Amino acid sequence: MIACLGRIVHSTDADCIPEADVSTISQSLDLQGSIESGGIMGVAGKDFGGLYSVKPVALIKPSGTEDIARVVKAASRTSHLTVAARGNGHSINGQAMADGGLVIDMRSTEENHFKLLTIDGSPYIDVSGGALWEDVLKRCVSMFRLAPRSWTDYLSLTVGGTLSNAGVSGQAFRYGPQTSNVTELEVVTGKGEITVCSETQNSELFFGALGGLGQFGIITRARVKLQPAPDMVRWIRLVYSEFEEFTRDAEFLVTREEGESFDYVEGFVFSNSDDPINGWPSVPLDPDHVFNPVHIPQSAGSVLYCLEVALHYNHNDHPSTIETAVSRLLERLGFVRRLNFQVNVSYMEFLLRVKRVEEHAKANGIWDSPHPWLNIFVSKSSIVDFDRTVFKKMLKDGVGGPMLIYPLLRSKWDDRMSVVLPEGEIFYIVVLLRFVPKGPSVEKLVAQNQEIVEWCIKKGLEFKLYLPHYQSNEDWKRHFGKQWSRFVERKFSFDPMAILAPGQRIFKRTH
Ligand code: FAD
Question: Tell me, which GO biological process terms does this entry list (predicted)?
Fold first, then answer.
């Protein structure tokens, strides 16, 4: 892996693209949009992870679904071309890339399809697979005072990109991942066919595409469930010194009925130190808040835990109603009483909170440097072991960014979808958001991720990688487990020549 990383990171001969291929394809396509071959590496050959770089043949900017279908059909008439839909390129390990293939810039279709619908009295929005979630939010709230129910923490991600994985954040315990909040998709399959699918129509393609890592089709339109958008959010962080108390409270909150819990539940681990990025100063929500370490219990270990929760409310709710609702919930929890931080922010400000982190990181030059991130789903049955070794020992000094951990409920995920989960009703998502300056340390951090995964395997922990990245067929088989044969059958039905999403490295292009 490390040798391979070194080779890929240092590839520089970006502009030697076989022009002949591009002009032949371009002529035969008759696109409404455009096709480019020069100077495309910056967009099509890189991603947010910054670990891989490959050379595509061309970047296509389609005007809509028809263009995308033509590109896929044209690729299918060649013996070797692959096609990668590129959402916003926020993958870590080259998943949206196509080495020697065609990259489709889905953002060029982002304005398409936007339409509000009411079905059986409930609101839905039709959006392009290339739309950014932040734009979906802004348009739905400003035009209709409605919003999708389930989010990711960061919203400069495309609808098709997150639906191809799952899309999780602190609302997923109640509504499931984003994949559980769409009722219809329009998809261009690997055969170049434009197909509308749902739970009742072409259902195998519908569930296949959800969490399908882009393997079965390119999502060009999604129908997303909406709910009334609240005006405001009470955003709260509560500190714990004991992992068992943190998980008990987090699980208590995610298993209560709507109306008897918070609207958002997440959490993170931080170093028990004054380190400005990894330690106590990373907890307060407002510059006026002070984290006074005097309140940390004597029994605390190398790391501490923070439960992050939020409650929605409206301008016309009486302040005492909010105070009462918050205090009732907080009095049941076992956090360190004096380490409790609260702010009121608008709903939009809350959902766009990571945009501020992005602005800050860009100013510090760490947004564009490599991000060897790791995302794992760990079963409740294995989470104490994981904490004891990974957080308390391996990562006790932090990772240069947040280390998220919060519980999710399997029953909110439809097991007909392609995404695979660890056993048990409650499992945790663990996310290591490493921010590192450029340099040799990146390889060490990739190796540390690998070490964590290998340790999980060796100790028999019940886990699955989220946003998985594997090199070998054996690893993919193990990842999918019992679902592998279903995944292969779906590939055979919808993309038999393995044209789509080659950057996932699951299947090889055939003739
Ligand atoms: P890309 O990286 O462009 O594509 C991802 C994969 O999907 C590729 O294989 C690509 O070919 C395929 N694809 C893209 N568009 C389509 C389409 N329309 N149809 C079919 N296949 C397609 N994830 C969470 O769940 N929760 C989070 O809170 C979260 N926060 C994040 C924060 C940051 C800062 C970053 C960088 C990532 C975060 N992610 C999170 C991960 C994110 O969901 C994935 O990386 C997602 O794939 C990125 O979306 P994208 O639009 O950039 O997709």
Answer: cytokinin metabolic process
